[in-house]
Design brief:
By secondary structure, the chain is mostly loops. It has no helices and three strands. The chain has a three-stranded antiparallel beta sheet with strand order 1-2-3, with no helix packed on it. The protein is elongated.
Length: 171
């Protein structure tokens, strides 16, 4: 055990770097902030490798109302999230803090305009055009189309169809 009581500890290393191995828990605790900086422009500048079946948790803040508890990820090129799970529940999951309209996941363009918004009430807003490559099913009580021009490829539009899904082409 090494116990150092100093205002600052500085480790300088040559080309081989500094390696810290811990058989148990490695705690880094600071009342200020913890900076990890590199000037490496080649390859991976920062790697966090959690091998095995453990996982990694990042907890920001210590209370639900901590106004400064933000996690900002700024990437100058592209952010890749690659989830290579094999179980049915694997994937990317985002859990909102409340089941209300104020809790939102917002994807914005570089100008700060909302491109896609999903709120805690499960309402979705799209900032501009939406293209659906497959079928579009609308399961609601009211469907409103507010548009100047409507183009429908099919010449037969069935109105008042319910239950059997059959309709007459006459009349």
């Amino acid at each position: 055990k090494v116990d150092v009581n100093a205002a600052a500890i500085e480790l300088d290393a040559g080309a081989n770097g500094v390696v810290i191995n811990a058989a148990g828990v490695l705690d880094v605790d600071a009342t200020g902030k913890i900076n990890i900086a590199t000037s490496n422009a080649n390859g991976d500048a920062l790697t966090i490798d959690v091998s095995g079946n453990g996982g990694a948790d990042i907890t920001i803040g210590n209370a639900a109302n901590d106004a400064n508890a933000n996690l900002d990820i700024v990437v100058m090129n592209k952010l890749n999230i690659d989830v290579q799970g094999t179980d049915a529940a694997d994937g990317v999951e985002i859990t909102l803090g409340g089941d209300n309209a104020d809790a939102k996941v917002i994807i914005q363009n570089n100008s700060g305009n909302d491109a896609l918004t999903v709120d805690g009430l499960l309402d979705v807003s799209v900032g501009r055009n939406l293209t659906v490559a497959g079928n579009l099913d609308v399961n609601g009580t009211t469907t409103t189309i507010d548009t100047t021009n409507l183009t429908v490829e099919d010449s037969i539009i069935a109105l008042g169809v319910s239950g059997s899904g059959t309709y007459s082409t006459t009349g």
